[in-house]
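Sat 14:20. Reprocessing the chain from the morning session after the first attempt stalled halfway. Input below, unchanged.
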Amino acid sequence: MNKKLLSVNNKEVKGFYQLTLKSKYRKNSNSFLIEGIREIKLAINNNYEINTKQLEIIVKEAEGLDITYHRAFDCLKNPEEAIKSLSLMGVKRILTSGGSETAIQGIKKLIKWKSISLNKIEIQPGGGINLENIIKFKKAKFTSIHLSGSKTIKWKHLTPNNIDKTFFEQEIKISNLKMVKNIISKIKDA
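Finished this time. Tokens:
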């Protein structure tokens, strides 16, 4: 048995995409035992379809965990068929922007997909959700949303002269607790 600590951020590792934050897994022949995580996010195959083989293994091994099919859903060839398939396979929610760059741009599809889901699988809007548009998702009766709650800044700390500064010149995202609190307050007040 091979034990390994794994930190994944939108990178494929051993055929799995985006196992949330830091996770432990053990590989035992064709199955994976996943420890210490509460949620698993999945991707698509090279034909822009659900990777059903991967998903079947994960659903079996992740008994009791919530499974979220992440925004790769927005790249699937047939999302309406995928909603039904994912529901039957044991996925709890689909994180999606409605096939658009942002969830507010895709809100019509999100509402349509929510009605297609028949409450058997949660459609969770994500992508560009903020203080200005959050109420539209509440009014559309979505039960949860996904947002980064971050702000973009430039690196402000001193850097040594003897290193390449390219990394430090890029904008970085940092958590913004005030923004998250404001969004929660706005939802509660609406």
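The chain has two domains: 2-143, 148-190.
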